[in-house]
Amino acid sequence: MFLRVLTVLFLWVLSTVTNVPVYAYVDSTTLSNINSEPLFRRNSTGLTDAVTWDPYSLSILSQRTFILSAEIHPWRVPNPNLWADLFQKIKANGFNTVSFYVHWALHYPTPDTGGGKGDWEQGTYRDVQMFIDEAKKAGLWMIARPGPYINGETTGGGFPGWAGNIAGSLRDNNPNYTQAWTPYLNSIAKIIARNQITEGGPIILVQAENEYSVGPNNDPYMQAIIDTYRGNGITIPITFNDQHGGAAGNFSPDEPGTHVNIYCGDSYPQGQNSWSEVQTVYYSDHEAVAWSNPLCLSEFGGGYIVGWGQVARGGTGYEKYSMDLTNAAYGILYSCTGQVKTNKILTRRGRVLQRHIANIFSLWFSNASAQTATILILFGGTNWGQTAEPTVYTSYDYGAGINENRVAGPKMNEMRLQGLFLRVSRDLLSSTLIANGTNFTSSSSVHTAELRNLDSGAAFYIIRQNDTIPTTLTTTKLNVTTSSGSLTIPVQGNLVLDGHESKVLAIDYVFGISGTRILYSTTEIMTWTTIDNTDYIILYSMSGQTGETAFRFASEPDVNIINTSDTHISTSYTDGTLTLNYNLVASMPVAVVGIGEDVKLLIMDKASAAQWHAPLIEGSGAFSNYFGVGTNETVLVGGPYLVRSAELSRHTLSLIPIQQGDLNGTTIVEIFCPSAVSQIRWNNQIVDVTRTTYGSYQAKIEGAQPVTLPEFGEWKVSGSLPEISPDFDDSSFVTADLTTTNYTNLPPLAGEYVLYSQQYGFYGGNLIFRGHFTATGQETAFNLTVQGGYAFGYSAFINGVFLGSNQGNLTISQTTDIWQIPNDVLRIGDDNVLVVIQDHMGIVETSTNSGKEPRGIRGYAIIGGNSTFKYWKLQGNYGGAADAPDTFRGYLNEGGLYAERIGAHLPGYPDESWQTGTPLSGGGVKSAGINFYRTTFSLPLPMDVDVPVRLSITPSDITSNFRAQIYLNGWQLGKYVNNLGQSSNCIRVTCGSTSKGVAEQARSFTVVPRQKWILDRRNRFDFGWYFHYSTTNLRLCFCARLRPAGTSTPSRRIRSTDVVKGICSVCSTTRL
Q1: CA dist 277 to 299, 330, 361, 1008, Å?
Q2: From the CB of residue 358, how many other CB atoms can be counted at a distance below 10 Å?
Q3: What is the spatial distance between Cα 131 and Cα 136, in angstroms, rounded to a whole number?
Q4: 811 pLDDT exceeds 60?
Q5: Which residue did the predictor score with more confidence, 536 or 958?
Q6: Average pLDDT for residues 381-395, to the nearest whole number?
């Protein structure tokens, strides 16, 4: 056995070096007689055997499992009742795992939040327990990634704003830093421990830190994290995510020093490109540094981030990924090790491969053997409030399979095809990479990787274009080794490969209770299942191609060709091999072929296959809805946009399948289910069905009616910058009188006092500084250095007179300006006030200034005379992080604007005394300052229809330098910066609006125009697809504290049953 394995591995090395396929001879007798003993000893943590691993794959509860995981972040969906929707979509599209970050900053606005135990408030986006519970209900395993540092394009990379205030460095064994993260990690570790698989929970892996490296001060820090996990009862494997594809071996168990159990890498091979060449280094890199593990890529790019100004203004900025990559999805990483995690991959012996599907953003990782892969991101969500870091903007759509609006796009169809195949193809989970190269086929343009299970003899040939960028169609024949000897397939015709297409072709593939063996097939397998002792298998390929599938039978079986349409199926039987040849035709009815009494083939083109689903039928036990552990039973459903679940229940001596699913229009639904079924329910409604001659049910189900969205009504307006008046009472503002700082890497440049907002408890949103001095008349200008992050802006006023603004740009986070003092502005011998209003773009990740970059005024001086500032006052969000009154939405929802501080962005705020005024055409901001606009509108959406709604902003002329904040029912949906670009689409936050009722919208705009500024065509909604389904689990969670104008005491809590409204604010800072 081991001699054979060593031979295969040696030949693989030879083939990768020479690019010439080399075959290890394995005769059919050997294939059938190889024993089933594992080639490698199973590894474990020594604390539990619920999750074990070897170089091939993970095993969960003794079952080898291909971990196909989707990365989503709980806080980017602020309505926790929508988590169930996302989990159901993820599960329905072939995934079995969710990977998630935990955001330290959101749970610890201060070091002692919750008495040091943090804020995990039930029913909020901070309710991690609810997030875990909903994932388990959906039947998804989980990979927890709590940091302490997470990166994730979020403010501070997950670090709370106060973390930068500590003395010394971050992310090492600095005792001050250790003291800072320990309470948080203890709290989240306890949550993970009680939800790990050993306790009946869904969490199977936990990651320590993220994208980090070994070092004298780093190793003790990493060990302290590991010890904290174990000390709090975590027994499952600990992983680590290394950068750059996992080549460095940081903290690998096969390298000396501090190490985790399972080493992973990450990779974003496409970047912002639509197409790049396949990277072929994953396998060799992994073997060099972590050979005892399955290959794991814990982040695999399912899209990519877009920053400020990187694409043309308009839309979300991520349309390039959906428009350039139509009709396909990521492509799953195939390997012989057996774990896949969306956006991330864990595996080893075999190859990882992402599918190139016509015009789709996919890659084949044909040189890796990943069995655990996580697609990062599968759902991105929204950087609402102040949750973004400076390089990114409101939309975090990511070009993901499920877009920011929660719509499962074309990429998900491809993921489902691959995920369902991986789910039932157990031989793939312990396959070995035999060889790869361009000489497997009659065309040197085609690259092939051969994976083979040395125990069962099953093989998987993964083919793609050798050059993955062109779209040239290629025809070829493939040389394969089977249990019947070496063959060249197809025997009739050719194998066709589109330019951006890849295929996994199965050899000696055994399926079903019948044990039927597919000798080979030039069409791909979507899935198989057994219903009423009949094995059903779905075969598909691109329209216009031909298929050839050969089966092995001891004697010639009866073949019943049903419902063939234009497939032109022909059959032949020779020497124990039954061969079917057929055409794949677009939009053809499903071709059904019966073989003997217990096998039915469903043959269809790929576009049709993308409309088929295989929902699980729940079994029994603690993991009853987990495939391979609690149940293997499925039904097959064709036609709908989405099938969330299915169940069989007994009713008057018959079985009733209940389908929970979504439609994007009137749909013919076809269902293969047990013959005892007499009724079909769709979303709890009995539907009229007909029975086909081949045993399925068909029903025509009506889609939802079109939805009419409202125009905005009357707007109310109020000025929102009273602070520029020299007589404004700022006694309630924080006195900024610190003279020392721990930001020693970026110390103050000038001035007596430190004006860094983090040191005063303000970690996001607009900041207002008021500097007081007594004028002598000699003062001529002010010198200001302001630091706000990439794309930030600020404005300066003296005694209510506008001095100027800096628009900010995409490449600098700090700017120095000299502002001349106009004549007759100073009050000689009296108090004068310089006001600086700064737009805060979030706190940097540690890749910039090691995470220690202040926000605020870094240097200030009065030019002319001898005057100096007597004192400074500072205001950020009301109450700062420590005492923000809106504990539901959290301290990062608001900034320091006057309208925000009085609660004018919240529903129910009394605006009767405000003037009528609009930010739309005919209105707008006429001078430098801040205006806050509010409007109320009805949003009569039907309760049983999910309507993904976007608020669309059409960009104004790029010379109109304005900034906008948009609120809906108190939630800051995001920011818009006209001169920089994205994002001009905002997502309706369902948490803050009722499906039927009134909504209030508010907008705050920062404007720096040369002319009067107005908002173009803002009085419209854009909305995407909508889908008809039961919304039982999509309850509203709106609940926020309101405070009357000018007071600090919350008056009451708004419940989900209250009628709520929406608001819009506009802030104008300059007119040059």
Answers
A1: 19, 15, 11, 44
A2: 16
A3: 9
A4: yes
A5: 536
A6: 95
Structure tokens at 819: 């502002």
Token look-up 């020693």 returns: 744
64 alpha carbon, distance to own chain's centre: 26
Contacts of 643 (CB under 8 A, 6+ apart): 92, 613, 615, 637, 659, 660, 661
Domain 611-662+666-702 has CATH 2.60.390.10: yes
3-state secondary structure of 179: helix
**Are the CB atoms for 848 and 790 separated by under 8 Å?**
no
Sign of CA dihedral 745, 748, 752, 756: negative
Given pLDDT bands bounded at 50, 70 and 90, which one contains residue 1018? very low
Catalytic residue, chosen from 71, 134, 211, 900, is 211
Q: Which residue has the tokens 């199973």?
A: 42
Asked if the bond preceding 28 is cis, omega within 30° of 0, the reply is no
- Paired tokens of 651: 């009713």
Q: Which two tokens stand for residue 873?
A: 């006052």
Cβ neighbors of 986 (< 8 A, separation 6 or more) are 382, 394, 950, 951, 953, 966, 968, 973, 974, 976
Single-letter code of the amino acid located at 753 = Y
Q: Quick: pLDDT tens for 545-562.
A: 999 999 999 999 999 998
Where in the chain are the domains? 38-424, 611-662+666-702, 722-881, 897-1068
User: Does the active-site annotation cover 714?
Assistant: no
Mean per-residue pLDDT, 21-41: 37
Tokens of 1017: 């065509």
The CATH superfamily label for domain 38-424 reads Glycosidases (3.20.20.80)
Mode of pairing for the β-strands spanning 654-662 and 667-672: unpaired
Which homologous superfamily does the CATH classification assign to the domain defined by 897-1068? Answer: Galactose-binding domain-like (2.60.120.260)
Task: Kindly report the backbone phi and psi dihedral angles of residue 931, in degrees, each rounded to the nearest multiple of 5, phi listed first.
Answer: -115, 145
CA dihedral 122, 126, 132, 135 (to 10 degrees): 100
Could you tell me which residues are beta bridge partners of residue 85?
none
The whole-number average pLDDT for the span 285-304 is 88
The dihedral formed by the CA atoms of 511, 512, 515 and 519, expressed in degrees to the nearest 10:
-30
DSSP classification of residue 1054: -
Residues 1, 37: Cα–Cα separation, whole Å: 10
For the record, the structure tokens of 682 come out as: 């769709």
Residue 60: closest CA among 128, 165, 143, 155: 143
Homologous superfamily (CATH) of 722-881 is: Galactose-binding domain-like (2.60.120.260)
- The SS3 call for residue 366 is coil
Q: Which member of 71, 134, 153, 299 is catalytic?
A: 299
Name the burial class of residue 876, with classes exposed (0-12), middle (13-18) and buried (19+) by CB atoms within 10 angstroms of its CB. buried
The pLDDT tens digits for 216-228 are 999 999 999 999 9
Give the pLDDT score at 273: 66
287 as an active site residue: the answer is no
Task: Tally the residues of the chain.
Answer: 1072
What's the gap between Cα 1039 and its chain centre?
26
Q: Do domains 722-881 and 897-1068 have the same CATH topology?
A: yes
Distance CA(1055)–CA(1058), nearest Å, equals 5
Q: Copy the structure tokens of residue 829.
A: 């011998």
CA-based nearest residue to 894, from 956, 994, 972: 972
